[in-house]
């Protein structure tokens, strides 16, 4: 029986595009399949902020940030917490990825035209010891053009391959089976869905209008994770994070459902670390949603007062931007699934950024004038739109009115004004003193010692109840689903392994479907900026390995 292609790639997101580009440029004939319409080419990377983890970059050095491969690996190990037999390959992938981030990653992307915003962000600051969770230094590099800007060279490479006849893109092809005909997995079968004019991110038709069966020497699975499937998220929710939240927002569209992981597992693939996942605690309802339960993540600076649903301050070091999963674990132990930021106009103007390409039109559109406009007074336009129209924002001139609005928003009288006032006044008392025992204030002052934070990210410390800094603002924060950290177990060539640790002949995996490499190179936590980079690295690796195997 003849082959339809040398390699079939399942999933047209960033990892699938990276793999396809490598395969086609190595002279292989590639079929790229995706269940969504062509408008969704690029997958979730399109919606991203475009953040990338780089080590000892020129951007860091210009800002007097000293970084090294050794420091990055120390931070990775302290964050990942590898502690399982299944972490054999994830740990090896992690080390290879840190080497990539400290080595050729930036030059490779730069050679394709990718550029970076000059101010490096400091995500996941940790707040523990030097060997604990978090980034010791700023490493979050924002792609100039955000997610679409990062996708562009890979889309360009794949489109060129399609024009030359080396690649063929088949949309509306939903894979439901993998099978063997000559020892290795060489047959991909599934359903053809009805044509759809759905715009990117919106629900497309699931009407089945046909079936397909395709054969190739190798298959690359790059189908993404489970973040849009709340039932599966709850099924995989680990006991260590407490009871799954009753209500979650979705950081990804519903078609990110994990179905292909089940197909691969049924065919014999090893699926590991499925209880490891990455969900944000600073989600807000999108006032202009694209998909159902569409949530946007606030990328906060360190100054907002973070309180739980009852108004109690979160414990040290659970400050904004310090420890995502540590905060999630604490919240799930409170009996409520929402928390609050309490802040001022002065803080929101300088410290609030919103994750996503569509929430940063200046960076996405590569507008220098627009970016310079961020230095002017006033909240950025997208943030102002959420203040005016978002369901989670309360803006008032005094604390009593703010608390009344917070309780009205939830429909429960959970927050007591006197208790919250005592907490805020105690915090404010420390602001006017050069000495403090409040570690959040210490962290704020420490952040401003970094030039990037002082310039555009961290407000001057001030009293929350200072009328000159007002009005007061409260933001209800929801749990926002996002990433699968576990996945298909792969070796360092991206070959999918079976339960006995042997390669599954002919099958490779990349991106979120492979836990970004090995079945979970992040371990339990992420340092951020590593998801897009993990898709690129694992997609490139799998593509090159599959090309060599099908020569």
Automatic annotation (TrEMBL):
Entry keyword Flavoprotein: yes
Highest taxon listed in the record's lineage: Bacteria
Name of the protein: FAD-dependent oxidoreductase 2 FAD-binding domain-containing protein
Oxidoreductase recorded as keyword: yes
SUPFAM superfamilies in the record: FAD/NAD(P)-binding domain
Alphabetically ordered keywords of this record: Flavoprotein, Oxidoreductase
Transmembrane segments: none
Pfam families in the cross-refs: FAD_binding_2 (PF00890)
UniProt GO molecular function: steroid dehydrogenase activity, acting on the CH-CH group of donors
Stretches assigned to the FAD-dependent oxidoreductase 2 FAD-binding domain: 6-532
Alphabetized InterPro entries for the sequence: FAD-dep_OxRdtase_2_FAD-bd, FAD/NAD-bd_sf, KsdD_DH, Succ_DH/fumarate_Rdtase_cat_sf
């Amino acid at each position: 029986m003849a082959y339809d292609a040398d390699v079939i790639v399942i999933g047209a997101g960033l990892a699938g595009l990276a793999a396809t580009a490598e395969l086609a440029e190595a002279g292989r004939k590639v079929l790229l399949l995706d269940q969504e319409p062509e408008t969704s080419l690029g997958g979730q990377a399109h919606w991203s902020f475009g953040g990338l983890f780089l080590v000892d970059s020129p951007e860091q050095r210009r800002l007097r940030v000293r970084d090294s491969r050794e420091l990055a690996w120390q931070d990775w190990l302290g964050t990942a917490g590898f502690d399982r037999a299944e972490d054999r390959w994830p740990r090896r992938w992690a080390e290879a990825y840190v080497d990539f981030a400290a080595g050729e990653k930036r030059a490779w992307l730069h050679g394709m035209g990718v550029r970076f915003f000059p101010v490096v962000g400091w995500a996941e600051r940790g707040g523990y010891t030097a060997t604990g969770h978090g980034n010791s230094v700023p490493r979050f590099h924002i792609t100039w053009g955000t997610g679409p800007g990062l996708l562009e060279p890979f889309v360009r490479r794949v489109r060129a391959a399609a024009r030359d006849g080396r690649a063929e893109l088949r949309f509306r092809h939903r894979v439901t089976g993998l099978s063997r005909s000559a020892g290795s997995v060489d047959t991909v079968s599934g359903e053809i869905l009805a044509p759809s004019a759905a715009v990117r991110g919106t629900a497309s038709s699931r009407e089945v209008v046909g079936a397909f069966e395709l054969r190739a020497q190798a298959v690359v699975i790059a189908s993404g994770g489970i973040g849009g499937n709340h039932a599966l998220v709850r099924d995989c929710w680990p006991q260590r994070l407490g009871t799954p939240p009753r209500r979650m927002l979705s950081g990804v569209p519903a078609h990110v459902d994990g179905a292909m992981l089940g197909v691969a597992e049924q065919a014999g693939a090893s699926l590991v670390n499925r209880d490891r996942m990455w969900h944000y605690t600073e989600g807000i309802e999108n006032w202009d949603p694209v998909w159902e339960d569409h949530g946007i993540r606030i990328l906060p600076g360190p100054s907002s007062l973070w309180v739980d649903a009852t108004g109690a301050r979160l414990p040290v070091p659970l400050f904004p931007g310090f420890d995502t999963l540590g905060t999630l674990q604490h919240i799930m132990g409170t009996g409520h699934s929402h928390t609050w930021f309490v802040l001022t106009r002065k803080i929101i103007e300088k410290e609030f950024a919103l994750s996503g390409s569509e929430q940063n039109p200046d960076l996405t559109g590569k507008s220098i004038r627009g970016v310079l406009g961020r230095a002017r007074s006033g909240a950025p336009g997208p943030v102002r739109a959420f203040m005016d129209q978002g369901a989670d924002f309360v803006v008032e001139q005094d604390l009593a009115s703010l608390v009344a609005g917070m309780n009205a928003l939830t429909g429960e009288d959970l927050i007591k004004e006197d208790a919250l006032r005592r907490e805020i006044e105690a915090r404010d008392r420390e602001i006017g003193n050069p000495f403090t025992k409040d570690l959040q204030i210490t962290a704020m002052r420490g952040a401003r010692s970094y030039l990037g934070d002082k310039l555009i990210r961290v407000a001057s410390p001030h009293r929350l109840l200072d009328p000159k800094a007002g009005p007061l603002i409260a933001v209800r924060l929801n749990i926002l689903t996002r990433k699968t950290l576990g996945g298909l177990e792969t070796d360092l060539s991206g070959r999918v392994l079976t339960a006995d640790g042997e390669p599954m002949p002919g099958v490779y995996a990349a991106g979120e479907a492979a836990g970004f490499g090995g079945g979970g190179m992040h371990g339990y936590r992420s340092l951020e900026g590593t998801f897009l980079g993990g898709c690129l690295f694992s997609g490139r690796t799998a593509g090159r390995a599959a090309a060599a195997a099908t020569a």
